[in-house]
Amino acid sequence: MPMKASTRSLALVIVAVFLGSLASGMMAELYQTPIPELEEETVVHNPSQATSPGHVVFGQYISSDNCGHCSKQGGGSDAHHSIKVNHPDEYVYVTYMSASFGSTNT
Question: Which domain holds residue 11?
Answer without folding.
Answer: 1-33
